Each structure stands twice: as structure tokens, then as C-alpha cells.
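Review form for a predicted model. The reviewer records the input and the model, then writes brief findings.
Reviewer: anonymous (R2)
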Amino acid sequence: TQMERGVFDIESIKIANNTLIETLNDSLRIADEGKEARQKALIELNKTEQELKDAILAVKIKVEAIPPKKITKG
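Model under review:
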């Protein structure tokens, strides 16, 4: 009947509404997780970059500490 159809439509709307709300909440959660992962990756990248700079500086200091060899004519 028409009355039963109206009730069914309301239930369908409620289900669709709840599904949409869950989808929106999942999207927000995923976006937050992505933001957090990017922040962690940036921290790791900065740390790795600093380690490389430190290693290059250490090599430079060692190279500069090596006395130059005298060139002799034979």
C-alpha cells in the first residue's frame, strides 16, 4: 500500500543517511591519518638530511686535516 511504501522510503533514507555519515567520518579519519603520516615522513626526511650533512662535514674535516704531500722532482 501507499502507507507502507512511505515508511519503507523513510527507512531507506535513514540507511542512506547513516551510510553517508559513516563515509564522511571515514574520509576525515583517512585524511587525518594521511596528514599524520606526511608529518612523520617529513621529520624522518629532515633527520636523514641532517645525518647526510653531518657525514659530509665529517669527511671534509678529515680531508682538510690530511697534510699535503710534497711534490719532488725526480
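Findings: Helices lie at 2-65.
Further findings: The chain has one helix and no strands.
Recommendation: see findings above.
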